[in-house]
Amino acid sequence: MKTLLRLVGLTRPFAWWMLLAALIGFATIGSGIGLLMTSAWLITRGAMLLPVAALQSGIAGVRIFGASRGFLRYAERLISHNTTFRILTRLRLWFYEAVEPLAPARLAIYRSADLMKRIVDDIQSLENIYARVIAPPVTALMVTALMWVLVGSWSTGAAFGVLVCQLVAGLAVPVVTAILARGTAREIAGLQAEQQLLAVDMVQGLGELRVFGTLDAHLTRMQTTEEKKLGLEKRAAAVEGVQETLSGVAMNAAVVWILWQMLPMVRNGSVSTVTITALIFGVIASFEAFLPLTGSIQHIEADIRAGERLFEIIDTEPEVKVPEHPEPFPGKGSIEARNLRFTYPGSIRPAIEEVTFSVAQGGRVAIVGPSGAGKSTIASLLVRFWNPTGGSLAISGREITDFDPEELRRNIAVVSQRTYLFGQSIRENLLLAAPEASDEVLKKALSAAGLDSLQNRLDDWAGQHGMNLSGGERQRIAIARMILQDAPFIVLDEATANLDAVTEQAVLDTIDHTCEGRTVLAITHRLHRMERFDDIVVLHEGRIVEQGRHEELISRDGFYAGMWRLQHETAV
Ligand code: ATP
To answer: Could you give the 3-state DSSP secondary structure of residue 392?
Structure first.
């Protein structure tokens, strides 16, 4: 119930639109009632062989209600769809704004397909919250009041019976149907989510499934899920049949009740057969308002489930919070880490322990070590993807937690091993780093990054994940982005790890040239051109095992010298 109220609360800014759509929805059904009543009146009086003049008002009524019903239905659809899309837009923005601060720390526990399902399908399914959950009961309530007045003005007893039948169709039938279909919508939604996960695994892991010979088992799992879903859908269809039958019974019971109550009135002359016929047809038409109520109750279940899945993410506390009074970012400066510690949530072993180093303004420091030593963790802490578990990490003497994380990230350009390129044009991929940059500026950045060949291809599509570009070009685009960002701090996280030796040398030259005058923290396990660093921090299993300049470390003949020899001998 709490979830439902929260969901309804989210639609509050559109209350007037929803009310307008509900009123027009009511007017549409009202026109339908009017159309059937005037038609019944016209046919009955026509059967009495009355002159045409005596039928004129009925003919006019049929024309007016017939035309207005179509027009009103169109207006109702237009406004309710408009309202639904406005609500969906608001929900998407609301969700996105809430999710963004959670990345990446709090989102790491979700599988990407699961997150996609929540962002796309769960929000999409909430479009029903207005169209199927809020609007139908409001319209049904108005129609109930109209019929009470209409029938009640002739016979309270008849109106009472009609009310009971309407309550049966609008309340009892949906509740019974919901009990019969209990959990079906939830189970179908769960199976749909599973199908999506399996499909994503199938597409992305097709190679592995083939190589390990598990493709058939995966297909069987997909088929089993589909069969289960089909079974549940059959059950849902059977329940729908029961609902339609029961609603029909309630409607016919209302008709019988009116006849039973009002036929004696015909006999004593207090009401005409024409009136009874018109009322009966009006009552039949009014049941149109109660049919969607079963859907309302069924959708409530699915909407609550979708809402729960969204709120589960929304209610997560972000790892990184914006300080109440953020310090202004100092611009150029130094980086200092003192006794820095960090343990990933759920992990027992610290990823880094008691790490101390500093990078002077305009200086260059390398963090090296074998895979899993904790190098990238330091970069993640610096850009505040995570908060340190202990110790201090400062920029120009100020704890990084004192700055606004957004401003901090704007001032630190990161070139990582895995450059993500969006499936857009090269221009759009570059504008990410400098949204206002002109084509001239973009071309200069491309040229500085050694990508003269792309200068005239700004409109070219980069391909899915940048697949239309070579590994070297992708990495150089990351450097062009770094140039465009023009940040005083640079973090190079295995920036050349995926490149062949020749390209690596060229990219390193470009980086060296670009980083001139900036404070650079380079993370690498490949020991190339290490002489250019002011200090080298050697990490092993999260701890500093050695520290100093390249020549110093080589002459010490310790862990670093061993790594260096191993790499160079292997290369030779
Ligand atoms: P590589 O050179 O292979 O990238 P690295 O030195 O950069 O390695 P980190 O990525 O910092 O190492 O990882 C340090 C330790 O923290 C490893 O033991 C790793 O398994 C663990 N780790 C990294 N990311 C996470 C995470 N998101 N959740 C839990 N543990 C993690």
So the answer is: strand
User: Nearest-CA neighbor of 466 among 419, 414, 416?
Assistant: 419
DSSP assignment of 132-158, as one string? IIIHHHHHHHHHHHHHHHHHHTT-HHH
How many Å separate Cα 90 from the centre of its chain?
12
Ligand 1 contacts CB of residue 373 (under 6 A): yes
pLDDT for position 158: 93
Pocket of ligand 1 contains residue 344 by CB under 6 Å = yes
What is the phi-psi region of residue 359: left when phi exceeds 0, alpha when psi lies from -120 to 50, beta otherwise? beta
Determine if ligand 1 sits within 6 Å of the CB of residue 519: no
Site to substitute for ligand 1 among 107, 343, 375, 523, most atoms within 8 A of C-beta:
375
Residue ranges of E strands in 316-445: 335-342, 352-359, 364-368, 390-395, 398-399, 412-416
- Please report the pLDDT score of residue 572 as a whole number: 53
Tokens 């491309």 locate to 446
Determine whether domain 2-314 maps to CATH 1.10.3210.10: no
335-571: in CATH 3.40.50.300: yes
Q: Which pLDDT does position 109 carry in this prediction? A: 66
Distances (CA, A) of 52 to 43, 62, 553: 12, 14, 111
pLDDT of residue 167: 93
What pLDDT is recorded for position 105?
Answer: 67
Q: Which sign, positive or negative, has the C-alpha torsion 444, 448, 452, 458?
A: negative
pLDDT below 50 — which residues of the chain?
none
Torsions phi, psi for 538 (to 5 deg)? -100, 120
Amino acid identity, residue 34?
A: G
Query: What local confidence, expressed as pLDDT, does residue 494 receive?
Result: 85
Q: How many Cβ atoms from other residues are within 10 Å of residue 208's Cβ?
A: 12
Residue 209 Cα to ligand 1 midpoint, Å, equals 26
Ligand 1 mean position to 376 CA, how many Å? 7
Tokens of 444: 């200069």
Q: Is 223 helix (H, G, I), strand (E, B) or coil?
A: helix
Distance between CA atoms of 362 and 313, rounded to whole angstroms? 40
Separation of alpha carbons 75 and 477, rounded Å: 51
Please name the residue whose Cα sits nearest to atom 26 of ligand 1: 344
Provide the terminal-to-terminal Cα distance of the chain, rounded to the nearest Å. 69
Six-digit token string for 382: 């610096």
Strand-pair partners of 470? none
Q: Measured between alpha carbons, how far is residue 47 from residues 34, 365, 391 in Å?
A: 20, 100, 95
Q: Please state, rounded to an integer, the average pLDDT across all residues of the chain.
A: 87
Q: Where are the domains of the chain?
A: 2-314, 335-571
**Probe residue for ligand 1, chosen from 347, 380, 541 as the CB with the greatest number of ligand atoms within 8 Å:** 347
**Residue 381 beta carbon below 6 angstroms from any ligand 1 atom:** no
The residue count for the chain: 572
Tell me the three state secondary structure of residue 547: strand
Residue 112 is predicted with a pLDDT of 67
> Is any ligand 1 atom within 6 A of the Cβ of residue 46?
no
**Is ligand 1 within 6 A of the CB of residue 525?**
yes
